[in-house]
Amino acid sequence: MKRSPNITDLLPKLDGLMQLLTEPQRSNMCGVASVHAFRKNELIYPAGSHPTMLHCLVSGKVKICREGVGLRTQIVRVIRPVDYFGYRPAFAGEDYVSSAIAFEASVIVGFPIDMIKSLVRENASLACFFIQRLASDLGQADERTVNLTQKHIRGRLADSLLFLKDSYGLEEDGYTLSIYLSREDLASLSNMTTSNAIRTLSAFATEKLVAVDGRKIKLLDEAKLAKISRMG
Amino acid sequence: MKRSPNITDLLPKLDGLMQLLTEPQRSNMCGVASVHAFRKNELIYPAGSHPTMLHCLVSGKVKICREGVGLRTQIVRVIRPVDYFGYRPAFAGEDYVSSAIAFEASVIVGFPIDMIKSLVRENASLACFFIQRLASDLGQADERTVNLTQKHIRGRLADSLLFLKDSYGLEEDGYTLSIYLSREDLASLSNMTTSNAIRTLSAFATEKLVAVDGRKIKLLDEAKLAKISRMG
DNA sequence: CTATTTTTGTGCCAAATAACATAAAATGCT
DNA sequence: AGCATTTTATGTTATTTGGCACAAAAATAG
């Protein structure tokens, strides 16, 4: 993690939040914001640590991982630019229960969480900003629970592929997922063993639902994937 | 669902929220609040409907159910007095994705959600009230996902029993869960079939971890249940 | 109080999935 | 380039869990 020099060039990206502040609040925030660059697979914060920052992903891709029984980790959320993350435990009065790890090289702006918390206490618009995000995330989390617990392997993998498309989009060709995941990551997103992720992805390829080239995955038949996802 | 006459006797219960309002806001709220009594198993709101109320459970017990693949329903949250519920989708700009059903006879105070939303926009303390709850619920939801997906049947059932104790407490004897669930509800809380809930609960009884008398469940060895839950 | 429905309990079998073993391929490192 | 490590691939087996059938018990309705 290296400190990147200047925040002023990143300001436009932070507009969504900055616009909600008064002018003095805004300049205050800029003064204390820090910019960090993370390399691929670098740990942004570990589970168990105390939250000190509100993070804003300016560029790159990040995964939020929770580890369950016997070191088996699960990807519970993925972050794309320009998403804010790492604030939930602070608002709930907890320490981090999940870790944040960069999928790929990423730039993150950090704001001291205590300052954010006091701003929220006096700025209802800012508070609404977080309410809206927490409310959506909670809905997604519940849906994810049902998906992971009730669907069979094929349904879960199809679901993950479509989820990745929604989250990170496709490349210019209109087919290739913009994120290149290891089979292991795909497995922890879909709650299955790596073997089964590999096997099932191969099966999808055989059925011409996807085309696989290393970590590059083309979605050839989204409609059918959606159907598989729906049927479990 | 019948309309109960007066809200004034319930006011002390609503203090947690009312204290955050200014005097005019408070009297305004009281004017538009409505009180409803629900019988056992009565539907409070159905999935798919549009949220119109912030609900506050004053007495009784409520389950929030989401139905997944093939009508299989899952209990995603349980509500105890004095909890607020039913507001998440309104803040996320969605319709209800889950239903609320009374476990047992319950009294609920309803506030028009649009009024709550506009209050939240101008009252940062009230906003923080919801932020705090959403943040905790989101943490619980993530933990639940890991529990349900990574633990084996025994672990999940043990988990549910301890969760029910945390949520609704024990009776005066210090052992009996204060909530009497059908085996089917126990199953949808633990994400397993009813047969397996019955089987596994019997196994726990044989092992003297619990004592079962109809729907009455005594927790005889919480430490061991916690261990089973941890190990998966 | 009896008939009907729902809930609970148990056994057996089949399906889904994890675990393990091993090899090939790809990647990173010096 | 060559070696070590990680990732991907595939087959085999064992475990876990769901599905189904049916009986007993309990709750509910008439």
Summary keywords:
232 residues, alpha+beta, Arc Repressor Mutant, subunit A, five-stranded antiparallel beta sheet, 11 strands, 44% helix, 22% strand, elongated, DNA-binding
Short description:
By secondary structure, chain A is α+β, with helices and mostly antiparallel strands. Chain A has helices spanning 15-18, 23-32, 88-92, 113-122, 124-150, 153-168, 183-190, 194-206, 222-231, and strands at residues 2-3, 34-38, 43-45, 53-59, 62-67, 73-79, 84-85, 99-102, 106-112, 210-213, 216-219. The first copy, chain A, contains nine helices and eleven strands.
Write up this protein.
2 copies of one chain form a homodimer. By secondary structure, chain A is an alpha+beta fold. Chain A has 2 domains: 2-144, Jelly Rolls (Sandwich); 151-231, Winged helix-like DNA-binding domain superfamily/Winged helix DNA-binding domain (Arc Repressor Mutant, subunit A, Orthogonal Bundle), CATH 1.10.10.10. Chain A has helices at residues 15-18, 23-32, 88-92, 113-122, 124-150, 153-168, 183-190, 194-206, 222-231; strands at 2-3, 34-38, 43-45, 53-59, 62-67, 73-79, 84-85, 99-102, 106-112, 210-213, 216-219. In chain A, helix 4 packs across helix 5 (124-150), helix 6 crosses helix 7 (183-190) and helix 7 (183-190) packs across helix 8. The longest helix of chain A has 27 residues, at 124-150. Chain A starts with a strand and ends with a helix. The model of chain A has no long low-confidence stretch (mean pLDDT 94). The structure holds a DNA duplex (30 and 30 nucleotides).
